[in-house]
Amino acid sequence: MSSALATADSRTRLLDLLARGGARYRLLNHAPQGRTDLASALRGHRLDQAAKSLVIRVALSSKRRRYVIAVVPGDRRVDLPALTALYAGREASFAAREVAEQLTGCVSGCIMPLSFDPELEVVADPALFAHEEIFFNAGRLDESVALRTACYRTLVAPRVAAIASAP
């Protein structure tokens, strides 16, 4: 599947999930941007309200690994040692770009803080829930979602763990 088709499919699945779940959200169109800080400026919100989502590879043993979507506030970094400990792994690292895009159906820079793959768990830092609304790209670089945090927690049901560190 081409990346354009995969992105369109991810966006469609997101909007379907939001509609079926009765979520309170807004779609925001803006210039294409994949960097969290710049996208936040375009969308007009504080950086800590952005849901920065990164695909992380956790090595469980020399032959076993697991991929997770780590979601942290936009002003924080993913704490790789915390993710390693959370999964009792040997080490955690950022997934290769191609792997992240294949697993999420999104191009790098617009990975959403949710998963449509039951094998790809979503882990969110509790600091993400400090605001009533979070912002993230809608599977595209030129469109974002402003979503009520309570709706996100209900619809996505992420695993919540301290996985963020200061920049």
From TrEMBL:
Residues in YbaK/aminoacyl-tRNA synthetase-associated domain copies: 39-153
InterPro entries found in the cross-reference section: YbaK/aa-tRNA-synt-asso_dom_sf, YbaK/aa-tRNA-synth-assoc-dom
Superkingdom of the source species: Bacteria
Pfam family, one: tRNA_edit
Protein name listed in UniProt: YbaK/aminoacyl-tRNA synthetase-associated domain-containing protein
